[in-house]
Amino acid sequence: MITTLLRRDLSRLFPFAGRGGASLPLLFFLAVAMLYPFAVGPDPQLLARTGGGVVWIAALLAAILPLDRLVQEDITLGVFDQLKLRNVTAESVMAVRLVAHWLSFGPLLVLATLPAAALLNLEGETLKLLLLGLIAGTPGLAAVGLMIAALTASLRAGAALSGLLLIPLTLPILIFGAGALARGDAASIGFAGAISLALVAVTPFAAGAAIRAAREG
Amino acid sequence: MTSEIGYLAGGEQASNALPMIPRLAATDLACRRGDRLLFRGLNLQLGTGDLCHVTGANGIGKSSLLRVLAGLLSPYAGDVEREGDIGLMDERPALDPDRALGRALGFWNALDGGTDCTATYSAMGLTDLLDIPVRYLSTGQRKRAAMAALISRQVPVWLLDEPLNGLDRQAQEKVMELITQHGENGGICLIASHQDLPLDGLKTLALEEFAP
What we know:
B: alpha/beta
């Protein structure tokens, strides 16, 4: 059951599989890294000092780009109803979708950070902290994205609300994940990872409850 | 009776397909959507082999009744008792628009245990459509696909919401035939429809009688 669900989710969300729209987050991420040096000027020191933060913001935005297709489509199609009739709980559906969502952007984003780092003049210790931070933080970003997508799926002003909800929920990951770059200490990455794990643990239940509420609404 | 559908052919297989005696009962059921009460005081008793036609004007609550009975909506008052798995077919076929029909149906088939559905697909006239993405299919073709997905689940209780909408006459007759067979095999079928249903032994549930 889990593999069947995962295979369907991946085929819908994974970049370059099926619809072209799914590779957008990755291209968006690289575009930000490419354009940033043009926007602030080619001062290597400035780029090295601020580049890590820009990569984090780009990663955050890349994680929320596919939000509209994460949950809403399946509500409209009636997929969740049919799954419920087959006694598949909303929580397990959401847990699988969280894994699929992260797989569809997390690993590729970490890989894409290498060319982005070259463009932003990030090297050595900074690059290492950035990569570790992204590995620790992206599951949390995926979890926040899925939670928001599920909570706002049945609302008409959902898109506007997603943006508002995103700020407080992702702030802790950014403070510790991106903050590790400014302070140059790896300990905060541990915090980012812990927050990430907590979000990953909560999300299937929150998103599952949101889907049930949407069904009743 | 001859049948192209796998589980309906042969007595032994049929008894395997419906292991328990299905039952669908509602007592003093009321349903509210928003701040409007749709129906109240509804009692329903359906046992093995029962076919029932739910009638009523648009917006009277036929689809909501089906969703309450399926357990997708909680009733405002009253209880629903179900015995046997429920299959619901409504206006949303739950097939991914971007996938080929064969793969979209294959997803549900894999969840349902992955039995061979070739016979079901050909009975619903889908064999030539399996390679076509769902978004290119017509309303009637999607409806036939949803019906195929329902049949291949082999569940004892069918809840059909406007099963004939968008179907050509041949497909309508096929659906009628399938409903009859389902009843003969001991299944329960509740049909919400505006159209006359030429079925033997059909009960009728007029939802107007339960309007507040």
